[in-house]
Design goal:
By secondary structure, the chain is mainly β. It has two helices and eight strands. The chain has an eight-stranded parallel β-sheet, with no helix packed on it. Strand 3, helix 1 and strand 4 form a beta-alpha-beta unit.
Length: about 170
């Protein structure tokens, strides 16, 4: 049910059909540029794709095939836009997007169950009014080490319990 292929020299995921019943998969620190093969892993609940090269990929279609996905880590992948990921994962509760090149919090309208999002070390300048509108269950928001000056959109996250904006430019 669990496979760890971290730090392997994989560039793409193939022949994974025989592991269709996987629940947890770790593919961190590999030079992955393509994850299309993961669409056969429909039982995955936890997926760690940190420190890869997925920034230019449209990965949303792959995640749509994972209806049980609750935890997704895409840390350090060169991602520039959350919206471009085309996330459509109804059960997703945890999303790690640390250390990417994200400049705007958008594209969260199809992850309504999101409880925690990590956006530390990106290129954020603001949390706009619409940023968190579609994640009503958000409890934890981490946006440390960005260039954030304004957080006017935080007020819509009424269930927020933990909020971190350390090392930003908020005045």
């Amino acid at each position: 049910q669990e496979v760890n292929l971290a730090s392997c020299a994989l560039k793409e995921v193939t022949l994974i059909e025989s592991f269709a019943n996987l629940v947890r998969l770790k593919l961190a620190r590999t030079p992955l540029t393509n994850i299309d093969g993961l669409r056969y892993c429909i039982h995955i609940a936890t997926l760690n794709l940190s420190h890869n090269r997925l920034g230019a990929c449209v990965v949303g279609k792959v995640f749509e095939a994972m209806p049980l996905l609750e935890s997704l880590s895409l840390e350090a992948n060169g991602i520039v836009s959350i919206a471009a990921l085309q996330l459509n994962v109804g059960k997703l509760k945890f999303l790690n997007l640390k250390a990417n090149d994200i400049a705007k919090v958008d594209g969260l309208d199809r992850v309504p169950q999101l409880r925690e999002i990590l956006l530390d070390k990106n290129k954020l300048r603001a949390i706009d009014r619409e940023s968190l509108l579609f994640v009503p269950h958000l409890r934890e928001l981490y946006c440390e080490e960005n260039a954030i000056k304004t957080i006017e959109g935080v007020h819509v996250a009424v269930q927020l319990q933990k909020l971190s904006f350390a090392s930003n430019r908020i005045a």
